[in-house]
Amino acid sequence: MGGFRLVLENLIKYVASLMPPGYVQVVTVLFDLVRYGIRVDPVQWFVVLTGKGEGEGYPSLALVLYSVIPVVLCLVVEKCLAKDTHLMFGISTTTLENVGMVVHVINIIVVVLIPMVFIHVRGHTFSLVGAMAVCFLYCILFLKLWSYVQVNMWCRANLKQRGPRKLRRQSVSIGVIQNEREHNGSNGTNGTANGFRPNSDSKDKAIPDLVLYPNNLHLKDLLYFLLAPTLCYELNFPRTSRIRKRFLIKRLLEVVIGWHIVMGLFQQWMIPSVRNSLIPFSNMDLTKTSERLLKLAIPNHLMWLCFFYLTFHSFLNLMGEVLHFADRKFYNDWWNANNIDIFWRNWNMPVHNWCVRHLYLPMIDLGCPKQAATVTVFFFSAFFHEYLVSVPLKTFKIWAFMGMMAQIPLSFVSKFMERHYGPRLGNTVVWASIILGQPLAIMMYYHDYMITHYNDELLLNGAT
């Protein structure tokens, strides 16, 4: 309704005043309607989103192509660790494992540092959207390679140790358990300690044999994991038997049409509010700043909800359908969260599952207290929130980092409200933090970005 009001306002301001007396200039009126009434220029959005204005060499594209190198290096090291490579060099298995882990750690850390270094050194050649895409890609690559390395390490440890194995260390998914039950039900086979034994004598060819370590170490398996809508690696992912064409078309239309709607609302509604917040925020005018914050909160929240739906429901389901990926639990009912902890556990399931599996539980296994492990997870998340904002903007502040770390005391506040005043008020605290926290961060980053990169022009315009 708010967007429709703005369209009508633009029609009244621009198109109605330019309405010709006759019908000779109908084409001109239609042009003005598109230009001023809807205020969406597809050509400009194409230039912005594709980074067409980047400097020579298209650095964003170059970094995207370079991402293949750490992937191949990771696979080569894993293959060396899985084979008897130590016999060729005359070193012990433990030494080879330690050297391999050092190479993995350096490789994964370099994945994070590459965008930071290149954007800092050659920042003038990067477009904003290109830099954001590169940082997002390398962030996902960091998490996926970490999971890939750690799961394969668990598999090697299971092969070496004797006695009962922990199920979590075996990288067994629901699809593996279902597959094993079908094998046992029809053939009476038993599982092995290293996972589950594929039944080669089975007559049911519809049930694929399960992959065991180290048979998973090939490029096709790794590329599938990198494209799959998950951050946690499995040797055997649950798979669907077919692609539902109607479901696929629905998700594709949602992505295409929804993305254009979001761009139109963003260009027409959100950008003007952000620009108008610069002067009040610079002058520290609390009243006007609060007014701009509240004015920005509604379009920002609408954009956030749209992006959430397009990303977690439309796009990830689209990728899952194309890749026959069956585990589609990308989010839970975070909107019903009665405290901050429940919200962070439910709104982004791929990241939550990764943090629990590869950071929280390993720290608990090492003897760390639960509170320390929780703070570490929030610190890790806060770093990458700041990474995805400050590096593309080339404005190194700590607002996103502080916003994430503030979730820890806010968690106590929301739990207190839930415990003493009921779950509905706890849910209100969660929604208030989402609706007001994000636009405040946007205003601060926009102010700092303009001051950092355009301070001289702002002073000149203010003087004239």
Summarize the structure.
Pathway: Lipid metabolism. The chain is mainly α.
Which labels suit this protein?
membrane; 72% helix; mainly alpha; diacylglycerol O-acyltransferase activity; globular; endoplasmic reticulum; 464 residues; transmembrane helix; Oat_ACAT_DAG_ARE
SSE order, as H and E?
A: HHHHHHHHHHHHHHHHHHH
Mean pLDDT: 78
Number of domains: 3
Q: What's the overall geometry?
A: globular
Specify the biggest β-sheet.
Answer: none
Cα-atom radius of gyration: 26 Å
What portion of residues belong to β-strands?
under 5%
The chain-level structural class is mainly alpha
Number of DSSP strands? 0
Q: How much helix, percentage-wise, in residues?
A: over 70%
pLDDT below 50 for ≥5 consecutive residues: which ranges? Answer: 33-38, 163-176, 186-205
Separation, N- and C-terminal Cα atoms = 39 Å
Number of helices, where a helix is a run of at least 4 consecutive DSSP H or I residues = 19
Any overview of this molecule?
The longest helix is centred in the last third of the chain and has 41 residues, at 423-463. The protein is mostly helical and 464 residues long. 72% of the residues lie in helices and 0% in strands. The model is unreliable at 33-38, 163-176 and 186-205 (pLDDT under 50). The chain has three domains: 1-32, no CATH class; 40-162 and 212-227; 247-462, no CATH class. Helix 18 (407-421) runs antiparallel to helix 19.
Write the layout of secondary structure elements.
Elements (H helix, E strand, L loop, with lengths): L1 H14 L10 H13 L3 H9 L8 H8 L1 H15 L2 H5 L3 H29 L6 H33 L13 H14 L31 H9 L17 H32 L1 H5 L3 H37 L17 H7 L2 H17 L4 H24 L5 H7 L1 H15 L1 H41 L1
